[in-house]
């Protein structure tokens, strides 16, 4: 009796598995062709397809840009139906794809995913991505500087065409002009300023994403540049002693931080709160346009300005990719290509829509396109695009980030 | 009945109002506030950006409320159909391994749903049940069924077999016995279980997201990214909408039950009349 009840579902599972194995072959054939065929054929195949885009859905501006700007345009120009699927963490759909891979599901519902950093590495290592599709996109070939380190690498991981850059973020420091007249241009100058103005500066406790990025700037400046960290962390034998100057720097400024460094704000939003209420004179952000929008909303004072370090600040890129089992790969490619067009990128840059930095190389655009992009009003607190673009540093790969976050706990927070 | 307004009663109802009312006031304010700084008690300026996005934008809110309610209702109906015979067996029969059956039935209350849902996801993927409402309904049964069984078991505990035996002697078949003797007695338990089942099903995020793979969009699927992403205005607006949906669902169930009792009573009287 018990055995009977078990066999029924098992049989059913086998039957379904057999059915899906059949469609498996068809999909594989189609996919290979897509990576080789010419763009005209791809756009023809894409017509009438329904494309599901899985992405973090926690910002109404971003959601609206997709729903009200990108989706109607795709429908009109390419007859593609774009549906945005909101997700609260990119990790969620990566683990879902892992399950789908191990269950052998070939006709998946995810056609475009929005990822970078650790999630890209996880997806790449587990073979969850479609393939080297970026080189097929006309806008990728025409407008994007493919040799730039922030395009060819994603947090130290070679991209290899598995994802196409959608936008960029860059680290900026935020100051209140009335309290910090001359912004410090280096970590040494910052230390000097902190000594002279005790209690006016702090950074979010690690592992906060932005606090961790701040520490990486300290690392680059106190240990002699980013070039040495391009190899995997395991290959540097004396890593611990190399990190020593960074801990010394952080311990040196600690007594002069907010609340004498006895405690750190637990997150960036707490630090922003301190800045908004005037307790500290500086905050920081990995989004160069965010301070401007906080000023617009009345949360930050009018005298808020952003600034960079002379040696440059960390920049990262966020990417669009196609999962291995997407059912509408041609539609996904056409949609991604459209999102990389100068028009879509200019609209994305506008703070009314989103305020996200363009992934395109300004110099590759036509004069009219450049002008359109430069005319976007980024708000008084945001730096000009050229200044941001010429001061970029590449991100560190995630194995270093882990080591640094652990080290901070032992060397700075505990002492 | 004489109404007594003792000071204790007034204080208690005031406290009750404070506990239930104040969070809602805060939610309402934060859904329309812009630039609400710490020392200020009330926001300085207001905007309806969040409500406009939630109600009229392209946010698919209404569709998702429909999906949420549909799933909750189907889940609850299945729960009733499963829980009544299960409770009957667990309360009235002694059999080997009963403690084990009970342990399995109540395990989902103790074991975090995340553990179970990962395994369910793999199985459902092989069966082709992911991305369907049916799959989500089946997955919602695991966190809701224990409460339903528990509630119906309590009703069964107070129902003596003598009542059914008496009905049997009067010539009632199994269906009539169940319909006229057992069901009216179970109804309060079923109502309690159904309320829990509806509320728990409505508030599922993780299970719905994993099994529905983003293709079954309920209200929590839209709401959670805003809570974790830190847009308090939109998150508050969605939360209020969610509370409204849950309260309406419970009121509707209450209304249906009341109607059932009203139609029930005359029939009882009629039976008495025939006897006489």
Automatic annotation (TrEMBL), chain A:
PROSITE patterns: PROKAR_LIPOPROTEIN
Keywords noted in UniProt: Signal
Gene3D superfamilies: Periplasmic binding protein-like II
Signal peptide: 1-23
The protein, known as: ABC transporter substrate-binding protein
Organism annotation: Planococcus halotolerans
TrEMBL record, chain B:
Xref: InterPro entries: MetI-like, MetI-like_sf
Keyword entries, A-Z: Cell inner membrane, Cell membrane, Membrane, Transmembrane, Transmembrane helix, Transport
Subcellular location: Cell inner membrane; Cell membrane
Protein name: ABC transporter permease
Source lineage: Bacteria, Bacillati, Bacillota, Bacilli, Bacillales
Membrane topology category: Multi-pass membrane protein
GO cellular component: plasma membrane
ABC transmembrane type-1 domain segment(s): 65-253
Organism per entry: Planococcus halotolerans
Similarity section: Belongs to the binding-protein-dependent transport system permease family.
Transmembrane domains' residue ranges: 69-91, 103-124, 178-199, 206-227, 233-257
GO biological process: transmembrane transport
